[in-house]
TrEMBL record, chain A:
Belongs to the snRNP Sm proteins family. The lineage of its organism: Eukaryota, Metazoa, Ecdysozoa, Nematoda, Chromadorea. This is U6 snRNA-associated Sm-like protein LSm2. GO terms for cellular component: catalytic step 2 spliceosome; Lsm1-7-Pat1 complex; P-body; precatalytic spliceosome; U4/U6 x U5 tri-snRNP complex; U6 snRNP. It is found in: Nucleus. Keywords: mRNA processing, mRNA splicing, Nucleus, Ribonucleoprotein, RNA-binding, Spliceosome.
Automatic annotation (TrEMBL), chain B:
Keywords: mRNA processing, mRNA splicing, Nucleus, Ribonucleoprotein, RNA-binding, Spliceosome. The gene is LSM3. Belongs to the snRNP Sm proteins family. LSm subunits form a heteromer with a doughnut shape. This is U6 snRNA-associated Sm-like protein LSm3.
């Protein structure tokens, strides 16, 4: 039996690393069911599951489900968009990291 | 040998071997993204991965809905647009990525 050797540059980590830089910042997570949740990003994992603190829901009349909820865990797979604070995004760094990620994931 | 392997074409100084290499050419350029549920986004591409998760800047989302006129019973296509300064798009919604079409 042979175990695969660990990669020099971790695959699949680009957006995980990116979201880690946004911990503590306010984001709006838009789900595939059209619910939008605004909150402070507390944590993220490799699946891009997210935990948000002090949340508020965009359309409270349509989605009263979360009126008493302060913090929530969001499964990565139900996310459609995450609206990001542009001032906290380093676009040059993102582009450079993307080029490395694509090269690392070449077959 | 029935078929010969062509050498990978060189575009703008880098080799283009896989479909993802084609998208890489669009980094820092505006792109058009067709998504599921009759959505489209245009924006400047800053990051993507092999799942087609993306970060777009100065993005505009277009949602196309079909409404039925109650009196005439004809179907009307309505488009709703939204501007998003900086957005992460999850790859499992993406159908295709391309350079923007002429006139956009």
């Amino acid at each position: 039996l042979q175990f695969p050797s660990p990669p020099n540059y971790a695959r699949d980590m680009l957006f995980f690393s990116f979201f880690k830089t946004l911990v503590g910042k306010e984001v709006v997570v838009e789900l595939k069911n059209d619910l939008s949740i605004c909150g402070t990003l507390h944590s993220v994992d490799q699946y891009l599951n997210m935990k948000l603190l002090d949340i508020s829901v965009s359309d409270q009349e349509r989605f009263p489900h979360m009126l008493s909820v302060k913090n929530c865990f969001i499964r990565g797979s139900v996310v459609r968009y995450v609206h990001l604070p542009a001032e906290h995004v380093d676009t040059q760094l993102l582009q450079d990291a993307t080029r490395k990620e694509i090269a690392a994931n070449k077959k | 040998q029935m078929t010969e392997e062509k050498e990978a074409p060189i575009v703008l100084g880098t080799t283009v071997e896989e479909p993802l290499d084609l998208i890489r050419l669009s980094l820092d350029e505006r792109v058009y993204v067709k998504m599921r549920n009759d959505r489209e986004i245009r924006g400047r591409l800053h990051a993507f991965d092999q799942h087609l998760n993306m970060v777009l800047a100065q993005a505009e989302e277009t949602v196309t809905r079909v409404e039925m006129d109650e009196e005439s019973f004809e179907q009307v296509y309505r488009q709703t647009k939204r501007s998003i300064p900086m957005v992460f798009v999850r790859g499992d919604c993406v159908i295709l990525v391309s350079p923007p079409m002429r006139g956009s």
